[in-house]
Structures are given as structure tokens and as C-alpha cells.
Amino acid sequence: MKDPEIKRKSAFREYAEAILVALVLALLIRTFVVQAFKIPSGSMEPTLEIGDHILVNKFIYGVKIPFTGLSFWAWEQPQRGDVVVFTYPLEPEKDFIKRVIAVGGDTVRMVNKKLYINGAEAYDPHAVYKGETPLSGDMQKRDNFGPVTVPEGKLFVLGDNRDRSLDSRFWGFVPLGEVKGKAFIIYWSWDSKDTTVRWKRLGRLIH
Q1: CATH number for the 38-205 domain, one of 2.10.109.10, 3.30.2010.30, 1.10.510.10, 2.60.40.10?
Q2: From its phi and psi, is residue 184 left (phi > 0), alpha (psi between -120 and 50) or beta?
Q3: What is the 3-state secondary structure (H, E, C) of the chain?
Q4: Which of 20, 84, 124, 174 has the lowest tally of Cβ within 10 angstroms?
Q5: Where are the domains of the chain?
Q6: Residue among 173, 131, 122 nearest 43 (CA)
Q7: In degrees to the nearest 10, what's the CA dihedral of 26, 30, 35, 41?
Q8: d(CA 158, CA 100)
Q9: Any long-range contacts for 57-64 (C-beta under 8 Å, 24+ apart)?
Q10: pLDDT above 90 coverage of the chain, percent
Q11: So which residues are the catalytic ones?
């Protein structure tokens, strides 16, 4: 007959090992596969609203090795129209989410709120404009910008809520190595103003 003390120690060890394995798997998934983010601002409205909780595919652009800047096994590169999470160039401790508008080699220009890519007016179905008439002076880059050519290895990004977004018009390009992943689904949405769940947004794919 086994000693009860030994049985207790054995059970404790099994539980501890199970918890450790679960923690390691969760860390690996968060680091290399998928990560959750919460939307804190309205710069991507109406695609993403304040209080949306989203999942980001972290391996589609390549599995990144932490603290090295290296990546491998990239399925694809960011394309025009992708909604991506990246490290904010001016404050590396922050993550931003925007839409890719142009990639390396593209020339971008905005004229009175109209977007042009490589000299042609762009198909821009996600853009909304909630501001006033085109601005001038220090803020004119919001409505009249460029032309600029995106360097290879970098992205030009904009918020869908064009008049309420701090994006590449103001602080420049996003290096490909700073892209954390592609947003693909809203798994939870909470309106903190009236403390209600936005049920219709749950499970909505991000395009």
C-alpha cells in the first residue's frame, strides 16, 4: 500500500507539471502564433471601434525570434489593404494598428482628401472623412500630402478614419521588421459608455 504522503506529492507534481506545460504553450502561442489586442482609439472607425478586442495572426508575415529582429517562414508580405499591428516608430513601447496603403516602391499622394497611388486615384473603400473641409498650414498634410515614394522594406499606413488618425502622413514609414501581425477577427466588443456588449460585432472578420 502506497504512503498517502507520497500519493499527495505525486498528485501535486502532476498538477504543477500540467500548469507549467499550459503556461509554456500559452507563451509560445502568444509569441509566435496569435495575440489579442484591444482598440483604444477611433482612428480605424468604422472598421474597428473603441472597445473592440481583436486577434492578430503573428506568423503570417514570418515567425519572429524575440529580441533579435530576425524572422523566418513568412507565408506572405504585407499587402495594400491589410490591417496590421506594428510598433509605433516614435514610441516603441506602444503598438499601433492601421491599414497598409502602399508598400516599397509605391508613390503616395493625397490631394484634397483624395488618395493617389503611383499617379492614379486609388480604390479606397474603407476610408471615411469626419472632419471639416481640407486644411491648410501645419495640418495640411492630413488632406494634402506628398508625393512621396515608399522605401523598400517599409510601409505607408493610414487609419480608416482619415480625419482622426495619427499615421504615416505625420510620422513616416513603418519598417517591415516592426510589423507584429495581421488583424483578422473581432472576438469581443464592449461599449464602455453604456456598458453594453456589441453582440453583432463578435466574430466579425477584419477586412
Answers
A1: 2.10.109.10
A2: alpha
A3: CCCHHHHHHHHHHHHHHHHHHHHHHHHHHHHHHEEEEECCCCCCCCCCCCCEEEEEECCCCCEEECCCCEEECCCCCCCCCCEEEEECCCCCCCEEEEEEEECCCCEEEEECCEEEECCEECCCCCCECCCCCCCCHHHHHHCCEEEEECCCCEEEEECCEHHHCCCHHHHCCEEHHHEEEEEEEEEEEEECCCCEECHHHCCEECC
A4: 20
A5: 38-205
A6: 131
A7: 110
A8: 7
A9: 57/33, 57/181, 57/182, 57/183, 57/184, 58/31, 58/32, 58/33, 58/34, 58/180, 58/181, 59/32, 59/33, 59/181, 60/181, 60/182, 61/176, 61/179, 61/181, 61/182, 63/32, 64/32, 64/180
A10: 57
A11: 43, 98
Task: Give the tens place of pLDDT for each residue, 63-111.
Answer: 666 555 566 666 789 999 999 999 999 999 999 999 999 999 999 999 9
Q: Residue 171 corresponds to which cell in the numbers above?
A: 510620422
pTM score of the predicted model: 0.81
Per residue in 96-151, pLDDT (tens digit) is 999 999 999 999 999 989 999 999 999 999 999 987 655 554 567 888 998 999 99
pLDDT average, residue stretch 21-33: 54
Sign of CA dihedral 203, 62, 107, 89: positive
